[in-house]
Amino acid sequence: MSDTYIYIAIIITAIATYLPRFLGVFSSDFVNEDGKLFKFVSCVSYGILAALIARIFIHPVGALEQTSTMIRLIAAGLTIVMLFLTKKNVLFSSLFGVILFGILNLYFN
Amino acid sequence: MNKTFDNHFKKGCRTALGIPGISLAASFFALGALFKNSGLNAMQSFLSTLIGFALPGQLVMAETLIVNGTLLNILIAVFLTNARLYPMTVNLVPVIRQNNRPRWHYYFLAHFIAVTSWVYMLSNYNKINKENRFSFFLGLGVTLWVLSTIATVIGFYTAGIISKKVFVAIIFLNPIYFMCMIVSVLNKLHIILTVFLSIILAPILFLVTPDWSVLLAGVISGIISYFFFIR
User: Fold this and answer.
1) Which residues of chain B are modeled with pLDDT < 50?
2) Closest CB to A13 among B52, B93, B168
3) Which residue, A1, B100, B132, B156, could crosslink B32 as a Cys pair with Cβ 3.0–4.6 Å?
């Protein structure tokens, strides 16, 4: 794999990444903040994001793949409990989740 | 730049330097290490985040390079992976739109739309006056982008130094943060239904079509809750 090939791959990745953003700005002309279309796009966006998170927890790729699914799910579940106990303190709950996951992964994986 | 623009731009920068930036930088730090193991050099790793700022797409690029995929493979795989940026951008621009602002400003800003900045803005835009949202988002997005680029390079140079268990915990911060952000803003019925449906559908669809599962689960659950609650 030559260096030039990798540079071209990076440029192609940048184009393929900017394209949906570009098309998104273009299409947004037809959407206003109070319309039904806005709510529809909101639904789809949150749906995709939720699916992405579910995939990372259940079928991750990369380094997380070597950790136990049960540990990932327990850490995620207890983090949600902590989120509600702390009246939705995202910072505290996120740190709690990571530390809990780290400890569980250290001792039980 | 006027003073109001300046103030809100700075406010966006400061927000990014908190948990959104820490969580995103953690993921790009891991990406930098992965790039090194995939055969990229430091300049290529830096450039990748600088011009192709969207982690899942960069990850797919590295994976495709490892298996000697063609450039066309990379183009298609990255586009599919990052297709989620389309509805997210369509959703975000009306929120930050200002009538007197030239269109090219939005095309420029689009480069900084990513999950972290989007989740933060969509969860908090009601707290910011409409005329200040563009400058706030620009500050937020640009700072996250700069942090991510720096984190990629640091990750590249420190690959192998950090213990594997700690490294894995660092990677876990980003999905946990996304989850907390989404759960903390679940107050509208149509969004709650979408999220629940999608969480159930995504793993099931993964068994049928791993590549399309995220996109399909999101679109199907979005359509169902739209027809139930909005139409």
Assistant:
1) none
2) B52
3) B156
